[in-house]
Amino acid sequence: MDAIKVLRNEYPGVQAWRRFAEVFLPDWEQWPEKQLAQSRLVDAEIAAVLTSYMGTGAYAWFEKPIGALDMRSARDVLNNETDGLDIIRSLLMRMPC
Questions:
Q1: Mind spelling out the 3-state secondary structure of 3-36?
Q2: I need a labelling partner for 71 at 20 to 30 A (CA). Which of 6, 8, 38, 60 fits?
Q3: Which of 78, 57, 51 is nearest to 90 (CA)?
Q4: Could you tell me the superkingdom of the organism this chain comes from (predicted)?
Q5: pLDDT tens digits for 83-95?
């Protein structure tokens, strides 16, 4: 099974995602460029998680091919896969803090 299918099939659901994303919201509230981050990273919760992990490096990460996404970018998966948002959420929840 390819990585995209695994991430899609093993997504733990919206409630688990929200609990996970809540951890990053205090840092997100302090982020000086919230509007820019949200526009470049598509979703406020994804932006909160990624900027907490990577700072402004999140922008480059979002656009580059990622092995865990079968060498596709997060933006490509988000824009072109059914359940793309859930796939990206599933990946982020697996990344080490």
A1: HHHHHHHCCCCHHHHHHHHHCCHHHHHHCCCHHH
A2: 38
A3: 78
A4: Bacteria
A5: 999 999 999 999 9
